[in-house]
Design brief:
about 190 residues; Rossmann fold; 7 helices; 5 strands
Length: about 190
């Protein structure tokens, strides 16, 4: 059975461009029969501002419970995040902090996105640190996307399919390797 990968689109602002990359990964995984996938769009979840972890909330919203289940049941996660002023968006920090056990040893691959030439690479260290603190397993391969507006259209179609797919292949193969390696590990009791 193929693995199931959740693709987390983390920007909630109007005119967002990182969502294009999330759409691309969904299409890439499915069209190449590499995994089943689902898009977890934080704009659609519209979480309240974090005030407590999900496990401590008395009345969590149905969206929080659904998000928790989707992260928990995924074999791996791809986080697609823009860079905002050298950091990742509050919407992503909010979504990460709502959960805890769901992230434990979960293989997570990071794709950073920007309108500029650095591809959001300034985000990687701070995001990796947050994921490390909650015990997620961050995949060593990264997928930075500079000048996203030139590389992907609104539907996630790349302008240079061959070049993008070559990079995507390495990135996804690393995530799939981590998912497979985790499946061979003994389960905790």
């Amino acid at each position: 059975m193929p693995p199931h990968i959740a693709i987390l689109s983390s920007s909630v602002r109007a005119g967002r461009k990182s969502h294009r990359v999330a759409l691309y990964f969904k299409h890439y995984l499915e069209s190449n029969n590499l995994a089943t996938s689902e898009l977890l769009d934080l704009k659609e979840y519209n979480f309240p501002i974090f005030d407590e972890g999900l496990r401590y909330q008395k009345n969590p919203t149905s969206a929080m419970l659904l998000f928790s289940e989707r992260i928990h049941s995924a074999d791996g996660v791809i986080i697609v995040t823009p860079e905002y002023n050298g950091g990742y968006p509050a919407s992503l920090k909010n979504a990460i902090d709502f959960l805890y056990e769901e992230w434990h040893r979960k293989p997570v691959a990071i794709s950073t996105v920007s309108d500029g030439s650095f591809g959001g690479t300034q985000v990687i260290t701070s995001l990796q640190f947050s994921l490390w603190k909650i015990r997620a397993w961050t995949v060593p391969a990264m997928f930075p996307v500079p000048k996203v507006q030139e590389l992907f259209d609104e539907n996630g179609i790349p302008t240079d399919k061959i070049a993008i797919e070559k990079r995507a292949h390495k990135f996804i193969q690393e995530l799939l390797w981590c998912i497979q390696a985790k499946s061979k590990m003994p389960h905790e009791k």
